[in-house]
Every structure is written in structure tokens, then in C-alpha cells.
Sequence to fold (75 residues):
Amino acid sequence: MKYQVLHTFIDPADGCRLYQAGGTFPGDGYSPAPEHLRHLDGSEGRPALIAPVPEEAPKTPEKPAPARKGSKKGG
Fold:
């Protein structure tokens, strides 16, 4: 699962990687422990540094709108 970084922080558990506000967490090649996620997401009563990013549902191709038959102009 990906998270949005709410406040810039340095993560000592990830080799002191800097996470910028507005970016995503975790970085490539890093899988944080569940306890560490609770520490960062505010579950333990601390200010939240990250927030889960909802996963998007798979996109289904849109069907083209049926052609509209117009009335003839004239008079």
C-alpha cells in the first residue's frame, strides 16, 4: 500500500531517507514493519506523517455514445 506524505520527515528506519510533504511513502525497495506504519500514521496518538492513498478501481473502457439521429432541416 502507498501512503501520501503529509509532513516532511527523515525516516531512520529507511536509511535516513528524506520524505518530502506531498510525496509518497515508502520508497522503492523498502517495506516498513506494521509497527513502524502505526508510528507514522498517527495511530499511536502522535501527529500523522503519512496517510493511506486509496487504491483506484481498475478502469473499464468507456463505450462510445450511440450516434444520434438528427431531424432533417428544411422546410
Remarks:
- The chain is about 10% helix and 20% strand.
- Helices lie at 34-40.
- The longest strand covers residues 3-5.
